[in-house]
Structures are given as structure tokens and as C-alpha cells.
Write a structure and sequence with these properties.
304 residues; binds zinc ion; alpha/beta; 7-stranded mixed sheet; 18 strands
Length: 304
């Protein structure tokens, strides 16, 4: 089974509290790190969680509201002070380039490393990153300015060869890779042995979806069907539905509804308004509609 986890660095909405930071999460897949949103103070939270800065090469920014990217220039500046040479990939709305380049220009900061910008498409689901084991997609959300969510989805795991068949059919090592990918096998007498006789299914593909700021969206669930863990913002409780709709944010019931429609196994909520001193009622109200709900708090690490 692959290592796959999400660590909460910031659980607050736009205004931080004495204990809650603006949005940021760290996704780790086989110890490769992906920073998702970078609210103010994200670098302090990375320090608290003992995350090595030199291991972060990919940063995803969902939209251009400050509570999702005001920590970025500080983090980039720290990378530079630490002597970083490796390039940094930023997946974000196109305006991010102008903001960062202006900040670097007026502070006369010359970076020792390159920033590679990848601009988001707000119209459709798009594959924006892949390696051997993982695909990352962006998908459109329903907020007051163009906003994307991100889906982290493992690629299909190779099938597992049954131990009992190795000696039975005298399978050479050189055939293993093909059989794991679904090939049949022809034995020394020319008989074809079908793949399902030789193998069992590989580990299930795990997935995590990050639904940043958004009002309820009927189409959202179609982008993240069958997801194992979905993070959905939940700025307000149900009694503030009118405010939530005006600000194009979600309530407890909205988050639960999306999790249900997506067929998600677990729901993680966050981005609470600063008005909520106690977040327990937010969790209970969401659980009344979707039982398998977790509540984001700073430092919480969840295995996907
Ligand atoms: Zn926000
Ligand atoms: Zn926003």
C-alpha cells in the first residue's frame, strides 16, 4: 500500500483566529510532497509539522483570494534564503505570476531557482500533473472569482502474481512485469494460461479531492466520483445559509450533500468562519447528514 496522507496546516476562512490559520494543506504521496493553498503563516505551520522545505517542489493555489495565497511570497523568500536551487512548480490562476514577480521586483529579490508557472483552466477538469504513481487534476468550483479544486488520484496498481503459480508454470523473472500489467502466459508446452489464473487484483486506487472555496455545485460531484476522502469547505452552519449563498460559500449541509452525491467514503470539513469559537457544533451538524465526517484542525494528519 502506498503512503498517502493529508496534513492540515490551516483550517480557518479569511480571518485567522488565535488558533486557526488560513487555508493550507500538505498532501504526501509516497513521501512526495504537494502543498495545496498557501495562506498566511503556512511556512510556520510547515515548521511546526517538521516538513523539510527542500522536499516541496509543487504548490497548488486554488484561487486568488488572499487567504489562499498570502503565505506564498514568504515561503518562496525562505526557500531562497535557505539556498534552494531546485525549480519550483506553481499551479495557479495566471494572475499569480504578476503578483509574485512584482513582490520579488520591489523587494529586489533575485531568486537562485526558477519558478515554473502552470496556469489553471476554470472551465473543465484537466490533468495538471502526473508521475509514475499519481495523477493530479484541477476542476472548476462555484465561487465569487474563478476557483479550482484539485483531485489526487493514484494510478492503477499492478496486479499481484500468485506465489503458487511461479513454480507450477516455471515463469521466468523476465515475464513478471508483463504479467503484473495483465499479460497472459504461454508455458513450455505452448498452453496459454490466462492472466486471471496467474494474478489477483492490485491494491485499490486511492484518491483525495480538495474542494476549496465554493457554493454548493451540482456538477462538482461528477469530477470526484467515488473519492476516498473529500475535503469540502464549510464556512457556515445551516442557520447562516443566506450569508453563505451571498458570499458563494458552503454550509454544513452543502458539504454533506456533495460528499453524498460523489459517493465519497469520508468527508473532511474546514474553512470555518472566525465567528465560530467552538467548532464541535459544525462537526455535529455535518455528521447529522453525512456520518463519516472529520473536522480539520491544525496539525491533524489523515491517512487517505
Ligand atoms: Zn477562502
Ligand atoms: Zn475565496
Amino acid at each position: 500500500m502506498n503512503e498517502f496522507s493529508v496534513t492540515i496546516l490551516g483550517s480557518s476562512s479569511a480571518i485567522p483566529t488565535s488558533t486557526r490559520f488560513p487555508s493550507a494543506q500538505l498532501v504526501s504521496h509516497n513521501y512526495k510532497l504537494f502543498l495545496v493553498d498557501c495562506g498566511e503563516g503556512a511556512q510556520i505551520q510547515l515548521r511546526k509539522n517538521q516538513i523539510r522545505f527542500s522536499k516541496i517542489h509543487h504548490i497548488f493555489i486554488s484561487h486568488m483570494h488572499g487567504d489562499h495565497f498570502f503565505g506564498l511570497i514568504g515561503l518562496i523568500s525562505t526557500f531562497n534564503l535557505l539556498g534552494r536551487k531546485m525549480g519550483l512548480h506553481i499551479y495557479a490562476p495566471m494572475e499569480i505570476e504578476q503578483v509574485l514577480e512584482n513582490q520579488l521586483h520591489v523587494t529586489q529579490t533575485k531568486l537562485n531557482f526558477a519558478i515554473h508557472y502552470h496556469f489553471l483552466d476554470f472551465n473543465t477538469r484537466s490533468l495538471i500533473f502526473e508521475n509514475k504513481e499519481l495523477e493530479i487534476y484541477s476542476f472548476p468550483l462555484n465561487h465569487s472569482i474563478p476557483t479550482c479544486g484539485f483531485l489526487f488520484k493514484e494510478k492503477a496498481h499492478p496486479r499481484k502474481i500468485k506465489k503458487s503459480v511461479l513454480s507450477k508454470y516455471a515463469i521466468a523473472d523476465s515475464k513478471f512485469e508483463g504479467i503484473k500489467q495483465g499479460d497472459d502466459f504461454i508455458d513450455t508446452e505452448g498452453n496459454l494460461i490466462p492472466n486471471d489464473v496467474l494474478t489477483t487484483a492490485g491494491n485499490p486506487r486511492k484518491s483525495f479531492a480538495y474542494c476549496s472555496d465554493t457554493a454548493y455545485s451540482k456538477t462538482l460531484s461528477s469530477y470526484i466520483k467515488g473519492v476516498d476522502l473529500v475535503y469540502h469547505e464549510c464556512s457556515f452552519m445551516e442557520d447562516m445559509r443566506k450569508t453563505a449563498e451571498e458570499k458563494m460559500h458552503a454550509t454544513t449541509y452543502d458539504a454533506a450533500q456533495v460528499a453524498k452525491e460523489a459517493g465519497a467514503k469520508r468527508l473532511l470539513i474546514g474553512h470555518y468562519s472566525a465567528r465560530y469559537k467552538d467548532i464541535k457544533p459544525i462537526l455535529l451538524e455535518t455528521q447529522s447528514k453525512f456520518a463519516n465526517t472529520l473536522i480539520a484542525i491544525e496539525g491533524l494528519k489523515i491517512e487517505v
